[in-house]
Amino acid sequence: MQLAAIIVSLVLIAVGVALFGRAILQIYQHMRLGQPVPKGTRTGEPGRRTVTVVKEFLGHTRMNQWGPIGIAHWGVAVGFFALLLTIANAIGQLFKADWLLPLIGDWLPYEIFTEFFALVTTLGILALIVVRQLSKPGRPGRKSRFAGSNFGQAYFVEAVILIVGACILTLRGLEGAQHGVDGYEAGFFVSYPLVAAFKGLSVGTLQNLTYLVAGIKIATSFIWMITVSLKTDMGVAWHRFLAFPNIWFKRESDGDVALGALQPMVSKGEPIDFEDPAEDAVFGVSKIEEFSWKGLLDFSTCTECGRCQSQCPAWNTGKPLSPKLLVMALRDHAHAKAPYLLAGGGKNAEGEERATEEQLANVPAAALAEADRPLIGTLEENGVIDPDVLWSCTTCGACVEQCPVDIEHVDHIVDMRRYQVMIESSFPSEAGTMLKNLEKKGNPWGLAKKQRLAWTKEVDFEVPVVGKDVEDLTEVDYLYWVGCAGALEDRAKKTTKAFAELLHIAGVKFAIMGGEEACTGDSARRLGNEFLFQQLGQQNVEMLNMAFGEDADEGVRVEKSKKKIVATCPHCFNTIANEYPQLGGEYEVIHHTQLLQHLVDEGKLVPVTPVEGLITYHDPCYLGRHNKVYTPPREIIAKVPGLRNEEMHRHKERGFCCGAGGARMWMEERIGKRINNERVDEALSLDPDIVSTACPFCLVMLTDSVNGKKNEGKAKESVQVVDVAQLLLDSVRTPVEPGGDGETADAPEPDPDPEPVK
Ligand code: SF4
Ligand code: SF4
């Protein structure tokens, strides 16, 4: 028994270690097939990056959003590394059954440590096995976050961890029995029942049992190692190693998720100069090897947990896009194509093969076939990613927010869109109208510039215009960036007028641009037209800098803290705050709900009139997830007397998109249920009187859906969709007259009937 266990174990260890070393080299070579990244972008602030990795691993900060599942995974993940020495112990036990690790083998803290992690690993994996079984896609279908994941691989990994955990505890029991542990003690606080069970067995039996269990533990561990070494695309196993570099090299060195700004377009690791692009510049991504090495690392790190999929609005409304399946498809394609690329294969811009026949002579046929697949293409074209998948994304960021290993889905999706739009001109045709309008008129509706100021005639106070009523913005506290929707779309204009009136009431000095400003370029950029975004952005940045009193020719600069902008549109807010710095525009930008909350806190706006009714607030993705503004709108709602707020099931970090982001506002939604209808169904399930939000795009999408539901008789006529600013104005504008019976404006008695919100 002993000899057999030794021989089998040593052979498996030798093969496992050799193959594992080869696999690591292979993965490294695969990553090197990707493009370089701009210098310093993935390595800046190494100390902070290291702290992030430690926090995310030891604190499981990304996983703990998932409650008990996060705790169970912590046990398994930390236990894997904490219990590595038990392999050395088991090898020693093969030769001498009562062998202990030198120095620490019978050191009480180490024994407690081992017992603790053996317990949490075993319990953790049992819990995760139960979770997977309960969430199998059988009945719930695509509602299961595991739909499309590789179940066989997951079962294998789960079985290995369970067997190893059980072996460690059994070996502890055998160790205690051989070393004469005769009562419950701290060093055997978990395994003592096993010690007691083994007591009374002969020494020979205990030794043989030790050889057997140590052999099983070693064989199981190294069969796992051999298997994963032969399958380097097995994310469910490899993520436990690749997650560390993937998190360390994440986009944001401060540890934040890759949301907010999109990154400038780069080719071969250098930003593209659109005024004079290099001859061989690559625009966007049309082949797997055109992703950066970090992109390829992202794909390989995916553990197929499906947390991204469970939150994706496209997937949840029956569209073909699942961020998990997208990442898995890219990973599988990258691994399958790698032998061809490693042999020197690749096509030039004309589609001609660069490699010689000799170079490709030993490349497996499967890899050659994989190399012929278009990255974006339909099923008939044998594409890796279907165009319907690519264009279904709203860039809501729910996937990025949820991913426990920090995969940067949105950046990858936009990179693929960039090639389709800028080189192939291949995108949903409806979006072409929006692009043309942006090019010609500077706004997506194609309305005349002078229309931008039309709303100012519809309010009964003066709205100062920069360059006309005020010379420049040094005379005011804020530039109010109205945005295209706020200036031109009827429903959004209500928010604009309400917000301007609130500023007027609070005595805030503000001004608006004179109508020459253009769209910020949010939709153009997210559609993939980076060139147009750069054009619009440059134009706006120049105009803004000038309005704030800067003069590039004279070298006059104004510090960022003096360039204050407030925006009612979260898309404008995000672009100006997070993306215009890439174009030389540094401003202090806040969202209107932040400013309103501040004015209410300061007592400059006092909501007094009750607005009766049940309200539910919808988080705009570009305000919430992309910029972490969750509290101010809720604080304002809480301050309006009479309102009772009830959260939808999906809110804050897990809020559900309205369907308009990522330029989806300008595309038809032909597949599955409309995303705005899904969101409104969720809102209406609370039977609210008011659905509130803080974004003109959300306002339009939600209003459209609510109106449709009213027409179908599925929503009560009185339900309103309003911006938080409108609610606040309604409460501030018409204060309750103090009554003779002790009523005061500060303590109003709620009216019996719901008061409509204007
Ligand atoms: S950004 Fe939103 S819509 Fe796009 S894949 Fe991620 S979750 Fe889905
Ligand atoms: S959340 Fe991240 S790791 Fe999990 S399936 Fe999605 S991409 Fe993969």
TrEMBL record:
Gene3D superfamilies with a match to the protein in the record: Alpha-helical ferredoxin
Residue span of region Disordered: 731-758
A Gene Ontology molecular function term of the record: oxidoreductase activity
Transmembrane segments: 6-25, 71-92, 112-131, 152-171, 209-230
Start-end of Acidic residues biased regions: 743-758
InterPro entries: 4Fe4S_Fe-S-bd (IPR017896), 4Fe4S_Fe_S_CS (IPR017900), Cys_rich_dom (IPR004017), HdrC_iron-sulfur_subunit (IPR051460), Helical_ferredxn (IPR009051)
Record keywords, A-Z: 4Fe-4S, Iron, Iron-sulfur, Membrane, Metal-binding, Oxidoreductase, Transmembrane, Transmembrane helix
Domain called 4Fe-4S ferredoxin-type: residue spans: 293-323, 381-413
CC per GO annotation: plasma membrane
Annotated SUPFAM superfamilies: alpha-helical ferredoxin
Protein name: Fe-S oxidoreductase
Source organism phylogeny: Bacteria, Bacillati, Actinomycetota, Actinomycetes, Kitasatosporales
